[in-house]
Design a protein that fits this description.
Number of helices of chain B: 13
Oligomer: heterodimer
Strand content of chain B: 5-15%
CATH architecture of one domain in chain A: Alpha Horseshoe
Radius of gyration of chain A: 39 Å
CATH class of the largest domain in chain B: Alpha Beta
Strand content of chain A: under 5%
Strand order of the largest sheet of chain B: 2-3-6-1-7
Radius of gyration of chain B: 22 Å
Largest sheet of chain A: none
Distance between the termini of chain A: 71 Å
Largest interface: A-B, 20 and 31 residues
CATH architecture of the largest domain in chain B: 3-Layer(aba) Sandwich
CATH class of one domain in chain A: Mainly Alpha
Distance between the termini of chain B: 61 Å
């Protein structure tokens, strides 16, 4: 026996006796004899660690880790460095080495985690430059990680590197804008405003984000504040207009667009938006004026569909308006809408010949060359313009537009500089304090109404529309006499009174009501300056009531439909039950298939159907649990005892930037499309950790590895074994059962997992359950891992008699029946 | 100390003596049993089970006999031990086995007695079944004709006697001695040697029945045993039994490759052409059916 072998034997003996110091001396000698004996060095390091000789342990570990690293065994090196990190968490160089090695191994998430720890360390010790340097590395490592970018920018800002911080902020902002992630934009702006409190860009984006994240009033207020400093800020005006649209304050929206148009009158997008605001605000005459003035330009820019839609709206609202009919006629001629043209002509009792005249006349309203072009391009336009463009078209890139003063006449009649920002103040009265939109809108409408009344005296068409509407209502609610009266009486209403009435009503009604009031008002004001009766108010209220009733009926209808659908759903589900045959294995297989395809919802549905039929189906339950885990709904309680993943993953507030979670998010986001080689790396690292006794780290790695099917089953099994070693039997069993539920598992694997569960149960002191598992294994293979012995022992311990096969007699009973010839 | 004690066994696991406790229900054995029972229960008259040496025909015959309860079947197993048997002798033995108490020496009287007995059995709601093991020994035309005569004992629409032959492939030659009898074969099934997976399960089953506390064969020895035995159960038993004894002599806890090589050398199986039996496939079954149809056409 060589000297080394003797020393090894001696060390072994000493260890068995618990004499660590002597064993250390033996290993020291072994290492002296053979310094390249890495296993002995590692053993020596472990013994130093056991003897609390940390410096010595670290020194030996370092040598081992260096050896592994230099020879390309990065995973083993990582495991050793990890062990060192556990021994002394304050050693910065270990974090660096771990990050580098993880990076070399392609384990980006792990590398980021190490860097993150470094950043925390540097921050704790107020070493800002070092922290920024590490963050720079993190950014290079994973440039798409927004959390890292934000942290980097924030650190730069904190360190006074304002330009760099601003630059990084801009980068993050652009990324978020590309994703339309306004929740995060809002958080970003809030985070950086303390550093750049007057920055108009940040304020602008915050205002816009507020509007888009359900806080339009606050957004509008902020944008007004911004415009107070720079009334020409076009982007702010556009955002403000959008804000007004969101709160359905179309008059303010129109005024804001008008303000923008004052400076850029040829912008047809803005013009279109303004017209839309007029239409939505029921200011049809103004809309018509705008359209008539700009229709040639609209034709020229291939906006015939927009024009058609606008004029059709106007046709409904102002059915007798000749300008509308005339232009619509021309549009239909050009667009080839023969049916509509015919309808238009017949509804206006036009003689057939009038068509030709009308056409000639209409065509005169447009440039001939222009028409030719338009007709030529018509089909492609018709196909390419989506329906939504009618509403959203006006604002480029979905960017809305700003507002202007209410009581002003159309601002086109005013020089731009005559439109002060007072309108901001006025509107702010409603916006800042939690708005009473009814009041605000109605007062605006009233103001406009007065103005319009002066401008345009004749509006017979409007009253006709109302009569028509009310007649319809009358048909539906015959006993609602006030309604019909209203129609008759409407002619005798003065505009002034309407203002009062409308205001009064508005104070009591909801925003939808206000719109109705506005409609009524417009119709009425065109009639005359006569006395207003109180019935007017009642009438309006009645109309509203009827609409409410209709709404309710509609809702009920919808609910009915939903009920029917529900019933149908139930019937669908109950169908298999009615047949009383559910092929559970086939259904499980189906669920497994869905799982493999990542169709978790379908898989879940199938599992639930199985459970409906067989409430105790363990496989279905296991699959459901697995679905939950893979969807990230709940992490297994024991998976990360020190890191409640489910809690820290920002599911609850997706818009939050969570630096603490940055690296984990990286890992988990990557998991969905993890490459097989990454899964392999995590799996192997898990094994290395497990061998080093770093069970928690091993579990983390197995958790990651199992996100790819290539190592899912193995990872689950090994994770379970780690959990067994940590004494977390429940979690271990859960992992084993998840593995058992894995689709397509082969019989040998099933046997192995069942046996492992049996061992686990035995270790947890649950002898009967262990016996049950072992018996299940023995059914398939009585000698699998000597399960027969385990069964015998357990039976003896539980006092259960063995099954005796002697009852299965031979041919003795039939012996007389056997004859030899 | 016997090898039973050394290995913690309660009985010999690999004895070749018939013992229903060791019956291992392989897929093909259960398929065979299913078909033969079908032949009986539907009064098909004649069925044949063919298999090579040691493939489990006798075991199956005895298993079948076990499966025929007295309240439903009047059954009997005749094991042919020599080929010089006469028509009268076999007729008398069958009559006695089916319950004819004093068989007449006269052949015609004996047939009448047998017919009456068969009618009694029929009236009691039971079926008469005669199983003939080692049927390849019935190598005379007269004997075949006698069986044809027995199969002709019937009442309108129903045969009174069912006969099942268990034998080596040569039994088909015997059947051809009487063409009309060959045509009366309603069900025929061929037993093949076992595949390696079944061999492993078979060995484990027998060990388990013998109450072995653990697997007594190294994992690599099982495929080798299968190869040397050609998947034939009887040879598997012989090899395994000898291996256990050899391991016992060598005081080994289990059978390893060295022990196995030694045993197969002693048994002279090393020189035997080791051919992996081809896995049974659907194509095999079809070929078998086709060959059967061909032979019927020739007749």
């Amino acid at each position: 026996m060589s000297n080394k072998a003797k020393l090894l034997a001696s060390a072994q003996k000493n260890l068995q006796k618990g004499q660590v110091a002597k064993a250390i001396r033996d290993f020291q000698k072994i290492v002296e004899i053979d310094p390249k004996d890495i296993r002995s060095r590692q053993k020596l390091a472990e013994l130093y660690s056991r003897a609390h000789q940390l410096d010595n342990a670290l020194e030996e570990y370092e040598a081992v880790a260096r050896y592994y690293s230099e020879n390309g065994f990065y995973l083993k090196a990582i495991a050793v460095y990890k062990q060192m990190q556990k021994l002394d968490e304050s050693q910065v160089k270990i974090y660096h080495r771990l990050a580098e090695l993880n990076e070399k191994q392609g384990l980006i998430g792990n590398a980021l985690a190490e860097y993150r720890s470094l950043v925390a360390h540097y921050e704790q010790h107020q070493m800002a430059a070092e922290a920024i340097s590490v963050l720079q590395k993190m950014k290079e490592l994973e440039p798409e990680n927004l959390n890292v970018l934000v942290k980097y920018a924030e650190s730069c800002a904190c360190s006074g590197m304002r330009d760099k911080a601003r630059e990084e902020f801009q980068e993050v902002l652009q990324r978020l804008l590309e994703k339309d992630d306004y929740g995060k934009i809002l958080n970003l702006c809030n985070m950086f405003l303390p550093f750049f409190p007057e920055d108009p860009e940040i304020l602008l984006h915050k205002g816009d984000a507020l509007i888009r994240t359900g806080q339009p009033e606050a957004g509008i207020a902020l944008l007004k504040q911004l415009l107070a400093n720079d009334s020409e800020a076009e982007q702010a005006l556009r955002c403000l207009a959008h804000g007004y649209r969101v709160v359905a304050d179309y008059d303010s929206e129109r005024l804001t667009f008008q303000r923008l148009l004052d400076r850029n009158g040829d912008d047809l997008d803005l013009r279109q938006a303004l017209i839309q605001a007029c239409l939505d605000g029921r200011d049809y005459e103004r809309a018509l004026d705008e359209l008539e003035e700009w229709k040639d330009a609209f034709f020229e820019s291939d906006r015939i569909r927009v024009l058609k839609a606008c004029y059709e709206t106007l046709r409904e609202e102002l059915p007798q308006n000749e300008r509308v009919i005339k232009t619509l006629h021309a549009i239909y001629e050009i667009s080839g809408d023969g049916d509509k043209l015919f309808d238009l002509m017949s509804s206006n009792n036009e003689p057939a010949s009038a068509s030709d005249d009308g056409l000639v006349e209409d065509l005169e309203t447009l440039d001939d060359d222009l028409l030719t072009d338009v007709v030529g391009d018509l089909e492609s336009i018709e196909d390419s313009v989506p329906e939504e463009s009618l509403r959203e078209g006006p604002v480029e890139g979905d960017e809305p537009v700003p507002a202007v003063e209410e009581n002003e006449p159309p601002s086109s009649e005013l020089p731009a500089d005559e439109v002060p920002l007072e309108f901001l103040e006025e509107v702010a009265g409603s916006d800042s304090g939690e708005p009473e939109p009814d009041l605000v809108s109605s007062s605006v409408v009233a103001g406009d109404a007065a103005a319009v009344m002066d401008e345009e005296p004749g509006r017979e068409e409007a009253s006709a529309v109302e009569v028509e509407v009310e007649l319809e209502l009358e048909l539906e609610f015959d006993d609602e006499s006030p309604v019909s009266e209203t129609a008759d009486d409407s002619d005798s209403v003065s505009a002034d009174a309407v203002v009062d009435t409308a205001t009064t009503v508005a104070a009591e009604s909801e925003s939808t009501r206000t719109e109705i009031v506005a409609t009524s008002e417009q119709d009425l004001e065109a009639v005359a300056e006569e006395v207003v009766e109180l019935e007017e108010v009642e009438e309006v209220e009645e109309v509203e009531d009827i609409e409410d009733i209709e709404d309710i009926e509609e809702v009920e209808d919808i609910e009915d439909i939903e009920d029917i659908e529900d019933i149908e759903d139930i019937e669908d589900i109950e169908e298999p039950a009615a047949e009383t045959v559910v092929d559970i294995p086939a259904r499980l297989e189906e669920a497994g298939f869905y799982m493999q395809q990542g169709l978790f919802a379908e898989a879940e549905r199938v599992c639930r159907e199985i459970l409906d039929f067989d409430a105790v189906c363990v496989e279905a339950r296991d699959l459901l649990a697995e679905i939950a885990v893979r969807q990230g709904k709940t992490a297994p309680a024991s998976t990360r005892p020190e890191e409640p993943v489910a809690e820290s993953l920002p599911d609850e507030d997706e818009s939050a930037f969570d630096w603490d979670d940055a690296f984990r998010r990286t890992q988990y986001e990557g998991a969905a499309d993890m490459l097989p080689e990454d899964a392999e790396s995590h799996y192997n690292l898990g094994i290395a950790y497990k061998e080093m006794g770093l069970l928690e780290d091993a579990i983390k790695e197995f958790d990651l590895a199992m996100n790819h099917p290539v190592r899912r089953l193995d990872s689950l099994s090994l994770k379970a074994l780690c959990l067994v070693e940590t004494g977390d039997f429940d979690a271990a069993e859960e992992a084993f059962r998840l593995a058992l539920a894995y689709p397509g598992i082969c019989p040998d694997e099933r046997l192995n997992l069942t046996f492992e569960i049996g061992q686990l149960k035995e270790r947890a002191g649950m002898a009967e359950e262990a016996l049950e598992c072992f018996l299940k294994v023995a059914e398939s293979d009585h000698f699998y891992r000597e399960v027969g012995v385990r069964i015998k022992q357990l039976r003896a311990r539980l006092g259960i008699a063995e099954n005796d096969l002697t009852g299965n007699v031979g041919t003795a009973g039939n012996r007389k029946k056997v004859t030899y010839l | 100390m016997s090898y039973l004690e050394q290995f913690g066994l309660e009985r010999e696991p690999f004895s070749n003596a018939p013992d229903a406790r060791f019956y291992y229900d392989t897929e093909q054995h259960s398929q065979a049993l299913l078909r033969l029972m079908y032949a009986i229960d539907s009064n098909k008259g004649l069925a044949v089970l063919i298999g090579g040496v040691g493939t489990g025909k006798t075991t199956l015959a005895r298993r079948m006999l076990e499966n025929l309860p007295e309240e439903k079947y009047e059954s009997s197993l005749l094991v042919m031990v020599h080929s010089g048997i006469t028509q009268e002798w076999i007729l008398t033995r069958i009559a006695m086995q089916l319950g004819v108490e004093a068989p007449a020496m006269d052949r015609l009287t004996l047939l009448k007695q047998l017919y009456d007995r068969l009618l009694d059995i029929e009236e009691s709601g039971r079926r008469a079944v005669v199983l003939i093991d080692e049927a390849q020994m019935l190598e005379s035309r007269e004997l075949m004709e006698e069986f044809r005569g027995l199969l002709n004992l019937e009442i309108p629409g129903k045969k009174l006697l069912n006969i099942i032959f268990f034998g080596l492939p040569e039994v088909e030659d015997c059947l051809r001695l009487d063409e009309p009898l060959a045509q009366r074969v309603a069900v025929k099934y061929h037993l093949k040697s076992m595949p390696v997976e079944t061999t492993e399960a078979y060995i484990k089953h027998r060990l388990r029945v013998a109450k072995a506390p653990r697997m007594l064969f190294d994992a690599d020895t099982v495929p080798a045993i299968h190869r040397y035995a050609g998947g034939v159960p009887r040879l598997i038993n012989t090899i395994c039994d000898n291996c256990l004894f050899e391991a016992y002599l060598r005081k080994l806890p289990r059978v390893n490759a060295q022990v196995l090589n030694s045993v197969v050398g002693d048994l002279g199986l090393l020189q035997r052409p080791v051919v992996e039996p081809p896995p049974r496939s659907e194509a095999d079954d079809l070929a078998e059916i086709e060959s059967m149809l061909d032979s019927l056409e020739q007749k």
